[in-house]
Amino acid sequence: MRQPQPFIYLAPIRGLTDALFRETLFSHFKGFDAAVAPFINPQKKSLYADKMLRDVLPENNPTLPIVPQLLHTAPEDFLVLARRLAALGYTHINWNLGCPVPMVARKKRGSGLLPYPEEIVGLLTRVLPELEIELSIKTRLGYHDHAETRALLPELNRFRLKEIIIHTRLGKQLYKGTTDPEGFAVCRQLSRHPLTYNGDINDLATFKTLASRFPTVDRWMLGRGALANPFLAEEIKGYPHQDSETRKMRLYNFHDDLFTRYTERFSGPSHLLGRVKHLWLYLIRSFPGNNKLLKKILKSSNPVNYREIVEQLFAG
Q: Which of 34, 105, 141, 223 is most enclosed, with most CB atoms within 10 A?
């Protein structure tokens, strides 16, 4: 019997995977089933006008389903935003308990809340009875150590959650060091909720190893690996192999489309170049041996010079 296709999320990467980027990526590359949007900045006593929710407005996300993400720790504010998103037509939202960025974690948000399980349980106890849409959680193996999430997961079993997405690092690691699949295996023993695996799925071989290790896991999240190799979701789902020139042309068209859309969106060269340079920190892996050109891209100071270097990279 043929195994069902895995469900693949695009991970939220703040400052990069916004609605414009997602729409461009999904129009050039297949294999993704949905995306979790970068978290919406918490606002006190806000009704969240459309301009504050531009990234998750349905009209800006016509291609694939997205899951808006909340970072709130105050139940009342959480519910205000959740109801606003429900009014936009969303049936699934995600609570961010995984962001490791120090300026977020220091405020006891994201993974910085993991050492305080009583506050996590308190918020869920307050909001879930009033929440009419599904809630999932994106988290890590802990902030300081594994004991934090291992103590939390059994407490979460009594709540109605759609799924738990686990990035297999600690918060204090940021995105450094190795991931810990064994830590994910322990979490599976402790949780009755469906778990989604996230963390350093950077190539097809890694995915196959993990899929073999966790044969009953059918939901996966790709982040930096998909930015480095936008074909990765297609490869995982077994799309027909294409020759190197075809792949290069598809990458070129994707970049050209994205650059054009960024040019229309951003008013100044600094913001424009900042966005594309951020992408190249990952995408350069699709062009091995070109670190010298990457340095030139990162040093480019105007769009004309930038395009000349990129053209040289694709022509190589």
A: 141
